[in-house]
Amino acid sequence: MQADPKFLRVLAGEKQARPPVWFMRQAGRYLPEYRALRASAPDFIAFCLNPEMAAEATLQPMRRFPFDASIVFADILLLPKALGQKVWFEAGEGPKLGEMPELARMKDLTGQAGEALSAVGETLKLVRAGLPADKALIGFAGAPWTVATYMIEGGSSDRSKARSYAYTNPDDLAALLDVLVEGTVDYLAMQAAAGAQALMLFESWAEALTDSLFETIVIRTHQAIIAGLRARGVQTPVIGFPRGAPALAERYAVKVPVAAVGLDTTAPLGLGQRVQALKPIQGALDPLLLRAGGPALDARVEEYLQTWGEGPYIFNLGHGILPDTPIAHVEQVLARVTGK
Amino acid sequence: MQADPKFLRVLAGEKQARPPVWFMRQAGRYLPEYRALRASAPDFIAFCLNPEMAAEATLQPMRRFPFDASIVFADILLLPKALGQKVWFEAGEGPKLGEMPELARMKDLTGQAGEALSAVGETLKLVRAGLPADKALIGFAGAPWTVATYMIEGGSSDRSKARSYAYTNPDDLAALLDVLVEGTVDYLAMQAAAGAQALMLFESWAEALTDSLFETIVIRTHQAIIAGLRARGVQTPVIGFPRGAPALAERYAVKVPVAAVGLDTTAPLGLGQRVQALKPIQGALDPLLLRAGGPALDARVEEYLQTWGEGPYIFNLGHGILPDTPIAHVEQVLARVTGK
Predict the structure, then answer these.
(1) Is residue A1 part of a domain?
(2) Least CA distance to A251: which residue of chain B?
(3) Which residue from A247, A289, A292 is facing B267, i.e. has the nearest CB?
(4) CB distance from B231 to chain A under 8 Å?
């Protein structure tokens, strides 16, 4: 039992004197070695779909820091690409998406989403081969609503167009989400088969939703994805991350059969404890505080350790690490979390 | 007692078979008569500070709709202007602010904030004179943190610069917030003296804060403002609106001696009921749903009436009405809320 990665043991409900730790976007631009690697591949999508490069990016932070888990380097917009929508990145801007394909056409492609993204499976295999046995390997996908916001809006925005669409075209949205559920199941099942030991569902834009939209477009789709995985015999634990919806995190933990709930920076400490009574939790240090550093950073880390450390807890940020974060601040936090 | 506006009776804790109703930004661009009035004054700040025009804007929706309360037409950035920071609006863009004055200079001006903004008091007097006795008149101010985000960032943004400042310069921020507390007390006391029967504190950017920042920059400053008003003998009820922080709304209701708590669109129905056990609540229809209209709009309004109508409740939006909202949708909601 002790040979299992600590991260997986906590996902299974174990408490630890010191929580396992990893950071969202730990493979990324704050690392000079990442910037050097990334410079060798001008196109971001091609970079994500190059298993050697993506595996190298995934492993870079594992060599430098004592993280307990590694998350495959990929992007949540690979799925719409696999379903036939054009996706590209322009330097210094967010993602851009072409016109959304016909729903029937996308539906035809959902069963081949994993195959279309087999490069991500190759990355997972390469990472696993390069990762010590006591480190866990996480696969992931964007959750359907979050992916749909990009598909509907054609890129990044405040999601008000997508939320309006949810009100004006509820049936069309439900049909799109169903297609995304199917594609996500196929994609995540492929990642599990390729060696992912946990699967994270990023609902990055759960914020600004009413409780009734949250029910129909977040809770329902996450339930359907996990049911779909289980129906295919995939028992890999799932971490759900409904970012920006702390007031609905307890309801989410009760209703969605995730192994653990990711909490964002806005989750109060007491809320985390209430969710912990139901499920292990993961989170939630403010990336702005990590970047700022100093004694306030130590104090907040200590608060998480003292308060959330009492239940099953995976230390993480509440959102992705910022590109201009000093590496010394990452080291400062990791020293405190690991006690080394 | 029955002669008091229904709105004020609910603020005092009474339940009503049908809640009183008003809409944030009910005086605004969705009304053709507002657009016509506004076109006659090219500068937005000058428009706000012209009592005849601002009073006319305030009264327009009261003539057209059965709203129970009227909120003085003004802007939360009048206060930084009164404290010596340049504020202007450019067509089609958000507000712009010049360099922040020295703190000591602003501090010297806090005691004259009400006097500097006496035009808003004149507006209140004109509105009161034009308003039936059964309609309530609300004054307001931006809450210190929200106003500070604009002062620090020089305009609208995602507030990440201001939140970083809270981490890197906590003492400077605390000093700025203290100055804003003093200025806000003076400004709101003037509004109460001019006839405002309730005062609303708009913490429009309470979102994305950790619980510990929320304590120091939201709860503490709101407590200080209400204490400052009471110390000056101003007993006018205050509505606090910590927008975007539903997970902290109960804590806010317990700790801040507001008469009522405004809830935003992300407040779950069950949360509203829990806050109602402590204080009257106000909110929280999604302006995007109001704009979308249709049966989904009726269904959501009915949910609020059925669920929140059981406790003291003021029907409102969860955020300001959108400029392109059809007037027929406003009428549709008001018919359902008032039963007429």
Answers:
(1) no
(2) B268
(3) A247
(4) no
Domain assignment of residue A328, yes or no: yes
In a domain, B1, yes or no: no
**CA–CA separation, A128 and A61 (whole Å):** 14
Residues with Cβ < 8 Å from A35, sequence gap 6 or more?
A29
Q: How many domains does chain A have?
A: 1
CA distance from start to end of chain A: 23
CA distances to B55, B115, B140, B195 from B122, in Å: 9, 11, 14, 10
From edge to edge, which strands make up the β-sheet containing A198-203?
A: A69-71, A136-142, A198-203, A238-242, A260-262, A281-285, A313-317
Among A169, A71, A172, which Cα is nearest to A123's?
A71
Supply the residues of B annotated as catalytic. 25, 29, 38, 75, 150
Beta carbon pairs, A and B, within 8 Å:
85
Q: Please give the full DSSP string across B303-332, using - where no structure is assigned.
A: HHHHHHTTSSEEEEESSPPPTT--HHHHHH
What's this model's pTM, rounded to 2 decimal places?
Answer: 0.95
**AA letter at B47:** F
Per-residue pLDDT of chain B (340 residues; tens, 9 = 90+): 446 999 999 999 999 999 999 999 999 999 999 999 999 987 999 999 999 999 999 999 999 999 999 999 999 999 999 999 999 998 778 899 999 999 999 999 999 999 999 999 999 999 999 999 999 999 999 999 999 999 999 988 788 999 999 999 999 999 999 999 999 999 999 999 999 999 999 999 999 999 999 999 999 999 999 999 999 999 999 999 999 999 999 999 999 999 999 999 999 999 999 999 999 999 999 999 999 999 999 999 999 999 999 899 999 999 999 999 999 999 999 999 999 9
In a domain, B16, yes or no: yes
Task: Determine the Cα–Cα distance for residues B152 and B148; give it in Å rounded to an integer.
Answer: 6
Task: Give the C-alpha distances (Å, rounded to integers) separating B79 from A52, B87, B198.
Answer: 57, 10, 18
Tokens of B156: 């609208």
Largest CA distance in chain B: 55
Which two three-digit tokens encode residue B66? 């059965």
Report whether B131 contacts B8 (CB < 8 A): no
CB atoms within 10 A of CB A233: 8
Whole-number Å distance between alpha carbons of A287 and B54: 42
The Cβ-side half-sphere exposure at B231, using a 13 Å CA radius, reads 9
The helix-helix angle for B51-64 and B32-39 (nearest 10°) equals 170
Q: What is the rounded CA–CA span in Å between residue A319 and residue A216?
A: 24
Residue of B285, B288, B329 best to disrupt the A interface, most CBs of A under 10 A: B288
Q: What are phi and psi of B41, to 5 degrees?
A: -130, 100
| List of long-range contacts for B40-46, beta carbons under 8 Å, 24+ apart | B43/B88, B43/B89, B44/B75, B44/B89, B45/B75, B45/B78, B45/B81, B45/B87, B45/B88, B45/B89
Kindly give the pairing relationship between strand A260-262 and strand A136-142.
unpaired
- Here the CATH number for the domain that contains residue B192 is 3.20.20.210
Domain that holds residue A332: 6-338
Strand ranges inside A37-127, DSSP E: 69-71, 87-89, 95-97
| B-chain residues near A208 (CB < 8 A) | 265-266
ipTM: 0.93
Closest Cα in chain A, distance from residue B247 (Å): 4
Chain B residues inside the 8 Å CB shell of A210: 265-266, 286, 289, 300
Distance from CA of A328 to the nearest CA of B (A): 16
DSSP state of A263: -
CB B57 within 8 A of CB B37: yes
* Nearest C-alpha neighbor of A196 from the set A82, A120, A134: A120
